[in-house]
Amino acid sequence: MQTTYIETQQISFQDFKNQILEDYRLGRISREMSYLGRREVLTGKAKFGIFGDGKELPQLAMAKVFRNGDFRSGYYRDQTFALAIDALTVESFFAQMYADTSVEREPASAGRQMNGHFATRSLNEDGSWKDLTAQKNISSDISPTAGQMPRLLGLAQASTIYKSVKFEGSEKFSREGNEIAFGTIGDASTAEGHFWETLNAACALQVPMIVSIWDDGYGISVPTKNQRAKADISEMLSGFQRKDGENQGCEIIQVKAWDYPALLDAYAKAEHFARTESVPVVVHVIDVTQPQGHSTSGSHERYKNEERLAWEAEFDGLAKFKEWILNYSIEIDGNEEVIATTEELEAIDEEAKKIAKAGQKTAWENYQKAVSELIQSILPLVESLKGQNTEVETYISQFNKLVSKAKKDIFHLVRKALLATRGTNSAERNQLMQKYNEVAAVEKDNYSSHLYSQSEWKSENIQEIKPVYSDSSEDVDGRVVIRNNFDKIFEKYPETLIFGEDTGNIGDVNQGLEGMQEKYGALRIADTGIREATILGQGIGMAMRGLRPIAEIQYLDYVLYCLQGMSDDLATVHYRTKGGQKAPLIIRTRGHRLEGIWHSGSPMAGILNLSKGILVLVPRNLTKAAGFYNTMLQADEPAIIVECLNGYRLKEKQPDNLGEFTVPVGKIEVTKEGKDVTLVTYGSTWRIVTEAANELEKLGISAEVIDIQSLIPFDLSHEIAESVKKTNRLVVIDEDVEGGTTGFILQQILEKQKAFRYLDSDPLTISANDHRPAYASDGDYFSKPSTDDMVEKIYAMFNETNPQKYPAIF
Hints:
Elements: H1 13-42, H2 56-64, E1 71-73, H3 79-84, H4 90-97, E2 137-139, H5 149-162, E3 181-186, H6 193-205, E4 209-214, E5 218-219, E6 222-223, H7 233-236, E7 251-256, H8 260-277, E8 281-286, H9 306-314, H10 317-327, E9 329-332, E10 335-338, H11 342-383, H12 390-400, H13 407-420, H14 427-448, E11 475-477, H15 478-492, E12 496-500, H16 516-520, E13 525-527, H17 532-543, E14 548-553, H18 563-570, H19 573-576, E15 586-591, H20 604-610, E16 615-617, H21 622-632, E17 639-644, E18 651-653, E19 669-672, E20 677-681, H22 685-698, E21 703-707, E22 710-712, H23 719-727, E23 730-733, H24 741-752, E24 764-766, H25 776-783, H26 787-801
Parallel strand pairs: 1-2, 1-3, 3-4, 4-8, 7-8, 12-13, 12-14, 14-15, 15-17, 16-17, 20-21, 20-23, 23-24
Antiparallel strand pairs: 5-6, 9-10, 11-18, 16-22, 19-21
């Protein structure tokens, strides 16, 4: 096992001196970056600024115990730490401020995130994994306060898993589970539920995790005393402190942000507890200052009194560090040794200013060069149109008067020029149009790529393998199909694990995992507490470290608890790093028709709208669900798979090739052919739609039934439009609220697939009522669309066009 930092501090005085001065130098460079960054915002060269000034010393101390293979999950004030582990340069810091879209110049997000959001690149250009044990890792930051905490739990738990689990390639993700996950959070954000849920889970699971709380006494302008039950978070957490002999709880260390030796000692101890004993640790860093206030959006002088401001000036970490260096002396072999003189430190201060300024200048010149090159390639082409329309010259004049020009200004000019010269067919206009299409494709990649995987492992590339049946294939309960398929999955993929409420010991609430824990162990088939947000977080973190987790959210309604993490973190990680990181997590849940307000919801539109970036798969039975699991475990994208809650006891024929057959994503299935109307649906509603279609046949209406199967991606081959072309009528049916998922489906069919051209009647949607479903079978009947509802409403379409053949029912 690696030794910890505290065990390796046998160094010469000269090495000690060099380390101290290097820390001081790096701290000063970071501070100058903060000062200069604020100026860049106030002069209009950058849009917004939020900086890490005041937190330099604790972050330098934290960086000393951060090893290759370790991960950080934090928020947007950790620039000194990122500098210290070589995950950030002065140039890339300012490139992010200017929103430079170059991955080479701004590798954290390629200009997609505002400043202070750091990330290392876990993936090669082709989407394959790098060796994460050979680098220091930062999981991509997000802004939502405490939103980084659930993911932190999974990053830490991965180390626990890797102590026991090995698979081909696992050496790229862990060295015997020796890695620590480091989290950072502002003190006021500990008032968020995600913080408490994560720390509670970490204390129960006993994972190697260090959480640093930067306590500057305020949450923006609100003092700490108004944030929580106790102003002192360490005091509040005292009940979490582990006791001797117990395998629960955490260690709590409180340390001052300006006390350099104490900070080194605190983080050395924290590393020892986490790395050696696999114990979560809270490092509560108090007396933190914010020399420039919360952000460039406001001034802290508005809410801090003169006494507080004076205290912050006196206890500024870098000022106290300088004081400590100048007061330090030691006698070695009869000679008094000091670290540095005042003049030497002042020289470092001046050097830091020059380094920060040079980095800022380089970043700005690179950004401006990219814009200038775009102008040079396009402006002459626009000018060539001046003779074709007088408005073009006006647009050029307005463009030239702009003091600062961005890419949007160039594109605005081109589009106005093309609009003004519409209807003109000239070589000059055609040349401009060609150039516009060329640069538009580049900017589409800059701003809109990598929402979904672009690698060879993207789900759309997974080969379809159909279920195989034989005379010996049995009719079994649906839950047996999914259970036996999971058995094959866990045997085939040692990196796969599943966890959730009731998932382990009893084999999930519907027995779809019956016997799996006994066979594969409690580490891989695990029960969790009732804490959906961190169940999701466990999955995100472990997926970012090369495992293939399946996070089970017991019911679809409960997904709402973790929707924030799905939306802000999981759905965006590949996009916000421009393909630099991925988290191929599978979310397993079950839902739709049951009974009662809290267990029969269908919040699909919310999931669709808020989670673009996650595949949304809605199988109609458990065989289809099993096929989707088999597909997604070969893919590198996150997905939510919604199993039909009323399907576990329904009979299905069990395929002979369990664990092998796949269901393709983005492909519909025509389950009943017809010629008069196309009925489009998914999930549990499919059974009722099929019943309605059979009833309509008796009334002389031939209905084609289509199971969407995959909402995201949606019908990639546009097969639904082909069905509408044949039937000339379209009905979309589901159990979401009015205008919910049916609205999305209509937009895809009518607008993207252009199926409106084939309609002889208005398209019809049949959805649930807008309220939650009432209890019991009668509640389901009157709350959600029934067979009667479907038959009557679809029949009415035909009554409208041919009342003689289809006389009115009512």
